[in-house]
Specification:
This protein has two helices and no strands. It has 73 residues and is mainly α. It has one domain. α1 runs antiparallel to α2. The radius of gyration is 17 Å and the shape is elongated. 5% of the residues are buried.
Length: 73
């Protein structure tokens, strides 16, 4: 894997991890705040967190796969 690609993927992974943590924190806030805000946002935030986690896992799998492919050549 080339150095620029490695940097891009690691930065993207970091951004996604921060996004997951942020959405998780917002989800906790919605859960503990309750009321109309909690009813409106809890499920949406959970779905968003799952989507971002999927993207983070896909990027991490890409990093591992590209690293392994680079070693075999």
């Amino acid at each position: 894997m080339s150095q620029p690609m490695r940097i891009i993927l690691f930065v993207l992974l970091g951004v996604l991890l921060v996004a997951v943590a942020s959405v998780l924190a917002l989800g906790f806030y919605a859960l503990f705040r309750g009321g109309e805000f909690g009813r409106r946002w809890s499920n949406k935030l959970m779905q968003l967190r799952v989507l971002i986690q999927f993207a983070a896992i896909a990027v991490l799998a890409s990093i591992v796969w590209l690293s392994q492919a680079g070693r075999s050549h």
